Write the structure tokens for this entry.
Amino acid sequence: MSETHQNPPKIIAEKDEDFKQIFADGVYTWLGTESGTLSFFVDSVDPAVDEKGALQIKTVKRRFKVEIRMSPVVYNNLIAWMTERRDLLEKTQLKSK
């Protein structure tokens, strides 16, 4: 027999001691049967100046900063929540024009 709670438990949110915030230029993402994964990266360019003085970008360094793995259920819920937030923002922006 499962118990039901009249009142849900209180959630205490706090940052872990190794918590960090990063800026990401992009993310690779995939979903498998066992987990969903988000792998965030930052790009930086390695510019060079040619003999005519023109700036050329010969390489882009893609550095992966953090990878987050979660259950497929959490992954799908996250994608749904982000899609809802994006749709709401787009509607709000359209109303303000």
Q: What stands out?
A: The first strand starts at residue 26 and ends at 31. Helices lie at 72-95. The mean pLDDT is 91.
